[in-house]
Specification:
There is one protein chain. Helix content is 24%, strand content 33%. The protein is α+β, with helices and mostly antiparallel strands. It has a single domain, classed as Regulatory factor, effector binding domain (Multidrug-efflux Transporter 1 Regulator Bmrr, Chain A, Alpha-Beta Barrel). The chain has a 9-stranded antiparallel β-sheet with strand order 1-2-7-9-8-4-5-3-6. Strand 4 and strand 5 form a beta hairpin. The chain is globular and about 50 Å long.
């Protein structure tokens, strides 16, 4: 019980996906990470607002890890919660969002099948991402500002990247008040997951 309360309040003890850092000669405003192949519980949504998609997707996936699966088993919470954003074709077009929870190591080989038809197990291939980390209670405006800063840094450094899709990642419970960790990820060109 105490462990669960600590995880909820301080986001401690949560499993994270495995990655290795690549050297960054350019500077410290982002880092380059190679993530190993892994399974994630995911759900897709369409809409105009990233934060609304994150909220709706989170609820679906939280239900899955709380036992809304064919095995009726609880799955440990992990971090980060990611949201892949495939922007719409124009300013008034819906974007497509894929919200995901990393499945803990004990579920990687045999994840419980989702009961909700809108939830699926995604097999992410190995990929490399440029990552910009920032703190605070993130919102849609902050995510976009941090993404633009990361894209400017990548252009400055001539780093081979794709501008879309991009990812937003959050590591903390809404109850954690300080030392919050948020990230935006831009994929290295030629290695789309």
């Amino acid at each position: 019980m105490l462990k669960t309360v600590q995880q909820a309040l301080f986001s401690t003890g949560l499993q994270n996906p495995t990655f290795t850092k690549e050297g960054n000669e350019q500077g410290a405003d982002y880092e380059t990470r190679s993530y190993r192949a892994a399974r994630w519980a995911s759900t897709t949504l369409s809409g105009m607002h990233l934060d609304a998609a994150l909220s709706g997707g989170f609820r679906r996936l939280f239900s899955y890890i709380q036992g809304n699966n064919h095995n009726k088993v609880k799955v440990a919470m992990t971090a980060p919660v990611t949201c892949r954003v495939d922007p719409g074709a124009g300013p008034a077009c819906e974007s497509h969002f894929t919200v995901s929870f990393f499945l803990p190591e004990e579920c990687q080989d045999n994840p419980p099948a989702p009961s909700d038809p809108d939830v699926f197990v995604e097999n992410r291939k190995e990929f490399t991402a440029y990552v910009r980390t920032y703190s605070g209670f993130s919102n849609e405006k902050m995510k976009r500002e941090e993404l633009l800063k990361l894209l400017e840094s990548l252009q400055r450094d001539g780093a081979p990247h794709v501008e879309q899709p991009f990812y937003a990642a959050g590591y903390d419970s809404p109850f954690k008040l300080t030392n919050r960790r948020n990230e935006v990820w831009v994929l290295k060109r030629d290695l789309l997951p």
